[in-house]
Design a protein that fits this description.
By secondary structure, the protein is an alpha/beta fold. It folds into two domains: 66 residues, DNA polymerase, domain 1 (Orthogonal Bundle), CATH 1.10.150.530; 300 residues, TIM Barrel (Alpha-Beta Barrel), CATH 3.20.20. The strands form three sheets. A ten-stranded mixed beta sheet has the order 3-4-5-6-9-10-11-12-13-14, with helices on one face. Bound molecules: S-adenosyl-L-homocysteine (SAH).
């Protein structure tokens, strides 16, 4: 990527509001924003010269001050179950992974919000790769832009993105500044037009971020729980030391209290002998008692070097039944794309040293706490 390009505005990551402000600065009418959204996100056009309903003068002006720059794929892997994983290049030589999971009647795109992750969950392979940086909004929405274009090419428009989940690399609630415009573009009828409930934000439990989301968003919230007690959860999700279960559950309740139609999905990765016993099922029932929620059990996906193993099917089934007995809808997530390492927790990023990662995570968390 040339230096000049990175200094001009990348219109790919601007939502309608931001595009209107951009055009206002150029002395143009706000409706230009609507035209641009459609050209970029619905027609997949990145070259201003092809935007035929803009005047030649405006097209030239745009070419001077802006670009529409999307990520490119360095590697495409297709699973035998139809899952497709892309390794996409982002600025500065970083790479992130994006996964498309086709199912009957729907297609889910799993996107990344950061290059690597700083949370260090002990059962997640992204964590073992360290944290490099936050993605910008154009790099986040760029994954959706790229996947839509590529799927149209690969399947002649048959496979479509109907759902988007922030369950790839990174912690979306530690990068809300960039995630928010991407969410707004996902919803915009002139871009992807997804209903808010078709977009899920998954968090390891960043309490101030949950509170921020609670106000005025209708996006679906998933919370990665994995354990019903603090001592066990701390071993799996170190962030639990900062936001213990009492704080996390209080934030979930505040989120739910904003709107009685809301519900939360609790993700629970099942690890053999560690968090899959009847005592934990009981603990989970107590913890979630009376909350409008759903539990999604995820079989642990192994990766090289992990000491953990997945729970066996019978144990998972028993656990599922035990939680269901409390009247909580409990499902077991089917593992998809594991033959191409595209399943949950198998996505890999680029490296920073552990000490650098600790420094950055502390700074981020401090900033979050101040912003709350
Ligand atoms: N940081 C966010 C989103 C990324 S992870 C979060 O923590 O929610 C998406 C989901 O995959 C989370 O529930 C995470 O705990 C789970 N996961 C991570 N590694 C896994 C693994 N090896 N096997 C199964 N699920 C895993």
């Amino acid at each position: 990527m040339s230096e000049t390009i990175s200094q001009v505005t990348n219109l790919l990551g601007l939502d309608r509001h931001q595009l209107e402000a951009f055009f206002a600065e150029l002395g143009e009418k706000p409706f230009r924003a609507r035209q641009l959204l459609q050209w970029i996100h619905q027609r997949g056009v990145v070259d201003f010269a092809q935007m035929t309903d803009l005047s030649a003068a405006l097209r030239n002006r745009l070419a001077d001050v802006a670009v529409v720059e999307a990520p490119r794929s360095i590697k495409e892997s297709c699973s035998k179950d139809g899952t497709i994983k892309w390794l996409l290049t982002e600025r500065g030589g970083s790479a992130v992974e994006t996964v498309f999971i086709p199912e009957t009647g729907r297609g889910t795109l799993c996107i990344s919000s950061q290059v690597g992750c700083m949370l260090n969950c002990t059962f997640c392979s992204t964590a073992t790769q360290g944290f490099k940086r936050n993605l910008s909004s154009d790099e986040i929405i760029g994954q959706v832009w790229f996947a839509s274009q590529r799927l149209a090419e690969l399947t002649a428009g048959e496979a479509r993105i109907t759902n988007v989940v922030f369950m790839g690399m990174g912690e979306p609630l530690l990068n809300l500044g960039a995630v928010q415009p991407a969410l707004s573009i996902l919803r915009d009828d002139l871009a992807y037009g997804l209903a808010a409930r078709k977009v899920t934000i998954s968090t390891a439990g960043v309490v101030p971020g949950i509170d921020q989301l609670a106000i005025g968003t209708e996006f679906a919230l998933a919370v990665s729980l994995h354990a019903p007690t603090d001592d066990l959860r701390e071993r799996l999700v170190p962030l639990n030391r900062k936001y213990p279960l009492s704080d996390l559950m209080a934030a979930c309740k505040r989120y739910l209290a904003h709107d009685e139609r809301r519900s939360i999905t609790f993700e629970y990765t099942m690890i053999n002998g560690l968090n899959d016993q009847p005592a934990q099922a009981r603990g989970l029932r107590q913890l979630l008692d009376g909350m409008p929620c759903k539990v999604n059990l995820i079989p642990f996906n192994p990766f090289p070097g992990t000491p953990f193993e997945p729970s066996d099917d019978a144990t998972m089934y028993e656990f599922q039944m035990a939680v269901r007995r409390a009247g909580i809808v409990t499902t077991i997530r089917k593992t998809r794309g594991d033959d191409i390492a595209a399943a949950c927790g198998q996505l890999v990023g680029e490296l920073l040293s552990p000490s650098e990662r600790r420094r950055i995570v502390q700074a981020q968390l401090a900033a979050q706490a101040l912003g709350a």
